[in-house]
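Everyone, study these two lines:
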Amino acid sequence: MISGGGTGGHIFPAIAIANAIRSLRPDTEFLFVGAEGRMEMEKVPAAGYDIVGLPIAGIKRELSAENLRFPFKLVRSLMKAGSVVRKFNPDVAVGVGGYASGPMLYMASRRGVPTLIQEQNSYPGITNRLLSRKASAICVAYPGMERFFPADRIVFTGNPVRKELLGTAVLRGEASRFFGLDPSLPTLLVVGGSQGARSINKALRDGIEALHTAGVQLIWQTGKPFLQDARNAVASLGKKAWVDAFITRMDLAYAMSDVVIGRAGASTVSELCIVRKPAILVPLPTAAEDHQTKNCKALVDQGAAILVQDAQASSQLVHDALNLISDPERCRSLSEKMGSLARPQAAEEIAQHVIRIATSNEL
């Protein structure tokens, strides 16, 4: 049983772990547990796995009537999670983060099911810290996690990434045909996460003319809310921009890009390390425990990325991107440092630990 979701940053690693387990043990039965109405309810079945939804939702940081309903949704989710665990009777439960992960792992643990936590960030949330007390293993992506978890159960694996990013590098020519761009021109890739990022989107919109003047092409994942604004903004660029709410072929997007702008979610950071792309990261300031800033600083301290604070994005982001894209030596240095932090076998290593835990009772 695998639980997690809410964003692509949780869903794609969960699917990567499942695929790795299936490769090692084709006879494995899987059930995913997600949150009703979230994107995992679409993405997981598309990847070939069954999923059950819990009525769980997050707590909003601003005052909201939704927060008053949270305790009731939590109780309902715990009850449903208990029922799902009882019926599926898993040999192991894996949590990768997201709204549904907490209730599912808690109820699995209560029923005596061994659990594994895949902590993606450099600063874990309170839920995983509490759940780790009974976890059989905690797979982490950053050093120094003994501050938060039992040291004897920590395994340094890195974060799983989408399988298509691990193969032979895609030719830039194929990527240019997919996006309809010129393979000889410098290209900026902007990804605000699967749901977009308003501060990044606004900064790009306001800096479109500067990009156009500099001869820089653009691949821009906007998320649905900002899509029309972005399309209006790039209308003057003609063939020098590709804009959509979501990028279905991130392997091609990375292959085409010279510099990447994005948030600092764990999945994005891990993918950038794998593809060795120079990046400017804009941490989401409202992320739980400010974990995106901590993720980003872990890279900056290694000389592997550039940090722009969300509040400075409007004045600084496009300027820094143009400076970086015109500095091949800086790009080369960032790329090398990024690559040195990559963990391309993360999904397989986690899968091996899951299988070990699941089969330990058979020995």
Notes: The mean pLDDT is 90.
